[in-house]
Amino acid sequence: MPQLSKVPQGSLARTALSGSNMMNEHRTEKIQQRKDRELEARQAKSAHASNMAETEFQNRQLVMTAWERSRNREPIEYGKRTDLPIRAQRESLPVFQMRQQLVDAIRDNQFMVIVGETGSGKTTQITQYLDEDGFSSKGMIGCTQPRRVAAVSVAKRVSEEMGCRLGDDVGYTIRFEDVTSPRTRIKYMTDGMLQVEALKDPEMKKYSVILLDEAHERTVATDVLFGLLKKAASRRPDLRIIVTSATLDAEKFSAYFLNCPIIKIPGKTFPVDVLFSQTPQMDYIESTLDTVMEIHINEGKGDILVFLTGQEEIDTCCEVLYERVKTLGDTIQELLILPVYSALPSEVQSKIFEPTPANCRKVIFATNIAETSITIDGIYFVVDPGFSKINTYNPRVGMEQLVVSPISQAQANQRKGRAGRTGAGKCYRLYTESAFLNEMTPNTIPEIQRQNLSYTILMLKAMGINDLLNFEFMDAPPRSSMTSALEDLYNLQALDDDGRLSKLGRLMSQFPMEPALSKALIESTVQGCSDEMTTIISMLSVQNVFYRPRDKQQEADNKKVQFHHPYGDHLTLLNVYNRWKANNYSKSFCVNNFLHERHLKRAKDVKLQLESIFSKLRLPLNNCNGNIDLIRRTLVSGFFRNAAKRDSESGYKTITDGTSVTVHPSSSLYGKDYDYVIYHSLVLTTREYMSHVTAISPQWLVESAPHFYKVAGAESESRKKAKIVPLFNKFSQNQDSWRLSSIRQTKERA
Ligand code: CDP
Ligand code: MG
What sequence ranges are listed for the domain Helicase C-terminal (predicted)? Predict the structure, then answer.
């Protein structure tokens, strides 16, 4: 029987659209509209927030301490707990009942699939069981996580449970951060980092057991590891591979790993009442905020978990909600508002695990990280707008884009399940039942089928895997995306005419970053500006360093302008870093200039890591004393494909395919009118924006990539007519012989 929609009146109905087939017909248009509205809404939000408070909730009294206060709290310290509660906690987890059975099965089987509800103890316990049982005497117990945050927080938790210092017996490795020691027996890491390790050690000799955790997420790196580990295991009968999943795709994993056994961990879950919206929601942000308010005011005890798509949305919601409840009085309990997303510092993140104080309700705004990667106790209410941000490769522009898309049914059910861990819960779905049944795909599409594979294919080539067609993918990526990745790598000269890894390509594969960046980095060592380039790339690899508090936007913008470089954002980033450095990396400098100290510190760490890769590879670190042209030219050597030419009508047009693009308003080149620019990425919001833009001279394109561009019409009398056009080069001509396997094999066959 379909659930009746019991969504709180007033809130959802107010923003509803009429016409129930609206969603089917105008899905794309709707997303676009939503984005437009989101932008407008964001500007109007503070004003709106106080209006709301005045009208709808005028007479209701709430006490609010929120997010600001929560940010000042001390982080939870697990280490202070006595041994007993921790042991009791460990033993209360569902997985504990299966301890012996699991350990025995892992000893007897090379491959194993473990399925269990989120929170049953798979990630934190199984590694410890194996360690306690002596597996780690034969090699480390490795456990991969698709997300950086999860790897760090789980390693912390396990080190606390084991009573050791993080980085000693238990450690973690994420990109540009290695917190392990020679003593480490249990190692958590991102799947991407294990993939990097496979480059040096394809047989995984350091490990006795590898747990591919959260395999249902199907990240590219996990998918590639499936293939690599299966191969490693065939050479090493003693190696054990465990795959865990929170969802129902276990059979598929088992079939792939030679029909290995599946062990199910019985979870203790409570029923969750599902409430669908009766009509499609036009603005899911508004609907979300309304629903949270309604729950807080009308429902009994229990914390709320809200799924949003990203950091910006989450921060906005936290602030708007804070404003809304602040103006209400004090007869209703306190509401503690907490954000969760990967970029959040770990001490703020650990707050979400703190028990909710008495007479207080907690609402957590999270990305889909809270679907399975982390478990928060005490959630009784889930608000699910039905969207998540996914990285999608857009072959038209040859770039990856983060796009807000509807989630799958599996994800929706996973989200729902988060409300039933502590007691019977409720899940508010801000979409119709018909949209759930007819418009959501049953399962999430594996990333490998929708992402740019350049980096992955560079790694595989570096491992000597040339025959990509016969690589054992669980779900092979579409041929078009493999070809386009090969083409990318060829254009960057990471592959030679025969499709084999060039010397440059081999060096590039040593850097865990997108190939365009590693190309620019290696080129900078030749050009003599690698000190500057490592800074720029480190700054690009961290979150936005500029901070813009709501109440001091103008002041913050004025400070930001002082860092702006006339030639663009890459040099602006270099300015920021260098001036921070000149100020002894001081905190006060960050505070005075509205810069996130934490992000700058991370950039400093990344730079150090890059420099250590340099010294391992014996690449020189050289400084060009601020030779701006040299730095920009070097950037072009990596990003020549992301070039755009000024166009009278629409701002800019990309040179490769004439897409209309605009300089992002946050760029230091916003409102400037250089003829040619390169950009780091395209961001699709209301239109296609170029983000991180730098002005260049067009001849650098031809000089850096003569195999890619030529000057057309240069011979004509008016030099103005000359323009840069992409060459349809050798790659296209050779494509057939290249396709997926290497040309060498074709030759051998011939
Ligand atoms: O992997 P799975 O989802 O099955 O569970 P887990 O991550 O091993 O978590 C088991 C329990 O450990 C959770 O219910 C949390 O109470 C606790 N935990 C924690 O307190 N802090 C963390 N960072 C991770 C887990
Ligand atoms: Mg887990």
Answer: 288-464
Report yes or no: 743 and 737 within 8 Å, Cβ to Cβ.
Answer: yes
Which residues does 169 contact at the CB level (< 8 Å), separation at least 6?
159, 162, 183, 184, 185, 186
Reference 219, options 258, 250, 191; nearest CA is 191
Rounded to two decimals, the pTM is 0.76
Ligand 1 proximal residues by C-beta, below 6 Å: 93, 116, 118-125, 153-154, 157, 353, 375, 377
Question: Over 90: is that where the pLDDT of 382 sits?
Answer: yes
Residue of 89, 117, 118, 124 best suited for mutating to test ligand 1, as the one with most atoms within 8 Å of CB? 124
Q: Tell the residue nearest (CA) to atom 10 of ligand 1.
A: 121
Q: Please name which ligand lies nearest the alpha carbon of 212.
A: 2
Distance 239 CA to ligand 1 centre (A): 26
Nearest ligand 1 atom, CA 156: 23
Which of 209, 204, 149, 199 minimizes the C-alpha distance to 177?
149
- 722 band by pLDDT with thresholds 50, 70 and 90: low
Ligand 1 mean position, distance from CA 142 (Å): 17
Pocket perturbation via mutation, ligand 1, pick of 98, 118, 120, 157 by most ligand atoms within 8 A of CB: 157
Asked if residues 290 and 11 have their Cβ atoms less than 8 Å apart, the reply is yes
8 Å CB contact between 366 and 314: yes
For position 449, what pLDDT does the model report?
A: 85
Helix, strand, coil % over all residues of the chain, rounded to 5: 45, 20, 35
Region of 277 on the Ramachandran plot (φ > 0 left; ψ -120 to 50 alpha; else beta): beta
- Of the candidates 728, 696, 695, 697, the residue with the CA atom closest to the CA atom of residue 712: 728
Q: What confidence tens digit (pLDDT) does each residue in 31-77 have?
A: 445 445 444 444 444 333 333 333 222 222 222 222 222 323 222 22
User: Which-ligand-closest: CA of 157?
Assistant: 1
Distance 99 CA to ligand 1 centre (A): 16
617: Cα separation from own chain's centroid = 28
Please provide residue 473's backbone torsions phi and psi, each rounded to the nearest 5 degrees. -75, 145
The amino acid present at 330, given as its one-letter code, is D
| ipTM, two decimals | 0.99
Q: Which ligand is nearest to the CA of 91?
A: 1
pLDDT digits (tens, 9 = 90+) for 314-351: 989 999 999 888 877 777 888 999 998 877 766 666 77
- Tell me which residues have their CB within 5 A of the ion that is ligand 2: 122-123
Ligand 1 mean position, distance from CA 294 (Å): 30
DSSP run (H or E) holding 402: strand 399-406
- In tens, the pLDDT along 6-26 reads 333 333 332 222 233 333 333
Residue 466 near residue 458 (C-beta atoms within 8 A): no
**Contact between 382 and 415 (Cβ < 8 Å):** yes
pLDDT, mean of residues 698-703: 93
Residue among 215, 92, 184, 745 at smallest CA distance from 475: 215
Q: For residue 309, give Cα distances in angstroms to 197, 388, 390, 506.
A: 31, 5, 9, 36
Which pLDDT band holds residue 588 (cuts at 50, 70, 90)? very high
Cα–Cα distances in Å, from 704 out to 138, 395, 494, 540, 643? 50, 23, 14, 22, 12
pLDDT at 86 over 90: no
pLDDT band for 401, please (50, 70, 90 cuts).
Answer: low
Q: Are strands 62-64 and 140-145 parallel, antiparallel or unpaired?
A: unpaired
Residue 245 CA to ligand 2 center (angstroms) comes to: 8
Ligand nearest to the CA of 115: 1
Whole-number Å distance between alpha carbons of 101 and 103: 6
Q: How does residue 374 score in pLDDT terms, banded at 50, 70 and 90?
A: confident
